[in-house]
């Protein structure tokens, strides 16, 4: 366990003629908790989605523990890796989504065990035991047989986090996991994220929760127009932003 | 109108009607089964990103949905042997109905596939599932649940379409009824009973499908 867990170098991404990421460089060490902030359209979610190949990207490299993600370059030619290989690489990271995206035809427990059985090839007993452990960890063991429709938004998001984390990813990606929640349900989800951070999980969080970013992150990245505008220790950054853009952004953000 | 209904002649031949009904159900089951498999393949083809696949699937649907089933049945029975494919009456009818039903089922399935939220596929990808695993464990079950109500009407419609097999003398329900009609001259009685059998059978089918639907429904 030496060096960086995640290395993003010169990341470029475009949708048609719109360049969304204009060369992002970012290294993440083991155990770091990084909050990515910025106004909408700044490219923060896109960057996160490139890390697990939910988005293709046209330039740059992403490495996890030194392994190049998604593409292989041989003889100057850049090729997308085979689907099977990409699927395996996606399992190196876990992701929680803004809209939870729980499988509606499966119970909470089945949501968590699906990947364990199909990807990790665990037996039914093994996957259920592990699934129950993680549901317990997010405080939802008593709801294991409930379908997503019978759970609150906060509960659904906690199941979704359990589903991702049960796969024992090396890196967790959180994409605005509290943005779709009613205000009174935000705390229970942040509590789960915080406890994972306390356990030493490496994570990248795209978030609008400034107070949370401030309290939990080891580092904050401010995305601005497809580039990293500023990054650093949250206390320093929030207290004395170096750029005009960050100062404006912080002024317009709520800290509660 | 001096006509007295007399069902005695029909009851004497009731066994034939029941055997006919049995054959109707069997033809429908086999044809719809094949049609579902082909329809699923076509539906996935239509929504695939490959222009070629979606074009071919679209062409299939255009052709087979716009042909009257009777024409397809006659083609299959009379023309295919000329082209070197000799099938029994039953098989040629099943072939025609399967090809025809696939076009309708493909459209039903396609609608369901489009309704599966993209976010669920992404959630599957994010835990490391392959496209095939996602299709089988996530997309297919969710799609099937959402199309069940429409599927029920399609199945019932296709079951009734088996009556066209009478045109090539497959001894299914309508054919048997016509035989009894011709042999006994109890015209009204024969067709009342045959109609009753269709209505009762379809009602039972509908009730069964509703039960499946209720059982599989994603609880809300």
TrEMBL record, chain A:
An annotated Gene Ontology molecular function: ATP hydrolysis activity
One Pfam family matching this protein: ABC_tran
Membrane topology type: Peripheral membrane protein
Keyword Metal-binding included in the entry's annotation: no
One Gene Ontology cellular component annotation held by this UniProt entry: plasma membrane
Keyword annotations from UniProtKB, A to Z: Amino-acid transport, ATP-binding, Cell membrane, Membrane, Nucleotide-binding, Transport
Gene3D superfamilies: P-loop containing nucleotide triphosphate hydrolases
Domain called ABC transporter: residue spans: 6-250
Coiled coil: none
Family annotation (InterPro entries): AAA+_ATPase, ABC_ATPase_HisP-typ, ABC_transporter-like_ATP-bd, ABC_transporter-like_CS, MetN_ABC_transporter-like, P-loop_NTPase
Record flagged with keyword Metal-binding: no
Subcellular location: Cell membrane
PANTHER family: AMINO ACID IMPORT ATP-BINDING PROTEIN (PTHR43166), GLUTAMATE_ASPARTATE IMPORT ATP-BINDING PROTEIN GLTL (PTHR43166:SF9)
Family: Belongs to the ABC transporter superfamily.
The name this protein goes by in its record: ABC transporter ATP-binding protein
Organism: Tianweitania populi
Automatic annotation (TrEMBL), chain B:
GO MF annotations, alphabetized: transmembrane transporter activity
GO cellular component: ATP-binding cassette (ABC) transporter complex
Keywords: Amino-acid transport, Cell membrane, Membrane, Transmembrane, Transmembrane helix, Transport
GO BP annotations, alphabetical order: amino acid transport
Domain ABC transmembrane type-1: 21-210
Record's subcellular location: Cell inner membrane; Cell membrane
CDD domains registered for this protein in UniProt: TM_PBP2 (cd06261)
UniProt protein name: ABC transporter permease
């Amino acid at each position: 366990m030496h060096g960086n867990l995640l290395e993003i170098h010169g990341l470029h991404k475009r949708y048609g003629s719109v360049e969304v990421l204009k060369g992002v460089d970012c290294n993440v060490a083991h155990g770091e908790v990084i909050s990515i902030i910025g106004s909408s359209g700044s490219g923060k979610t896109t960057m996160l989605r490139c890390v697990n190949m939910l988005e293709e990207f046209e330039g740059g490299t992403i490495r996890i523990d030194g392994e190049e993600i998604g593409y292989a370059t041989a003889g100057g030619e850049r090729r997308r890796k085979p689907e099977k290989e990409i699927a395996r690489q996606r399992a190196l990271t876990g992701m929680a989504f803004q809209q939870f995206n729980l499988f509606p035809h499966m119970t909470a427990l089945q949501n968590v065990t699906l990947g364990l059985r199909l990807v990790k090839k665990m037996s039914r007993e093994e996957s259920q035991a592990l699934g129950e452990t993680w549901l317990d960890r997010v405080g939802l063991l008593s709801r294991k047989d409930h379908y997503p429709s019978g759970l609150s938004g906060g509960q659904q998001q906690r199941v979704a986090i359990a589903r991702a984390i049960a796969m024992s990813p090396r890196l967790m990606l959180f994409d605005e996991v509290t943005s779709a929640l009613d205000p009174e349900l935000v705390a229970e989800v942040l509590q789960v994220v915080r406890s994972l951070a306390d356990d030493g999980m490496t994570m990248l969080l795209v978030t609008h929760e400034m107070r949370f970013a401030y309290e939990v992150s080891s580092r904050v990245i401010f995305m601005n127009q497809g580039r990293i505008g500023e990054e650093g220790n949250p206390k320093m950054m929030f207290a004395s932003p170096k750029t005009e853009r960050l100062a404006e952004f912080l002024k317009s953000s709520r800290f509660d | 109108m001096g006509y007295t209904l007399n069902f005695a002649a029909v009851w004497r031949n009731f066994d034939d009607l029941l055997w006919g009904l049995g054959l109707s159900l069997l033809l429908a089951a086999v044809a719809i089964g094949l049609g579902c498999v082909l329809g699923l393949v076509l539906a996935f083809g239509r929504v695939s990103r490959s222009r070629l696949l979606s074009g071919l699937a679209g062409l299939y649907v255009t052709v087979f949905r716009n042909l009257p089933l009777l024409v397809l049945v006659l083609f299959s029975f009379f023309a295919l042997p000329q082209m070197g494919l000799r099938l029994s009456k039953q098989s040629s009818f099943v072939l025609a109905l399967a090809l025809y039903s696939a076009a309708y089922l493909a459209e039903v399935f396609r609608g369901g596939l489009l309704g599966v939220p993209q976010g669920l596929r992404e959630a599957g990808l994010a835990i490391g599932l392959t496209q095939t695993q996602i299709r089988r464990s996530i997309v297919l079950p969710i799609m099937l649940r959402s199309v069940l109500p429409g599927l029920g009407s399609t199945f019932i419609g296709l079951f009734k379409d088996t009556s066209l097999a009478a045109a090539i003398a497959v001894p299914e329900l309508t054919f048997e009824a016509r035989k009894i009609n011709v042999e006994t001259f109890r015209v009204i009685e024969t067709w009342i009973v045959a109609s009753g059998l269709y209505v009762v059978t379809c009602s039972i089918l509908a009730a069964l499908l509703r039960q499946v639907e209720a059982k599989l429904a994603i609880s809300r």
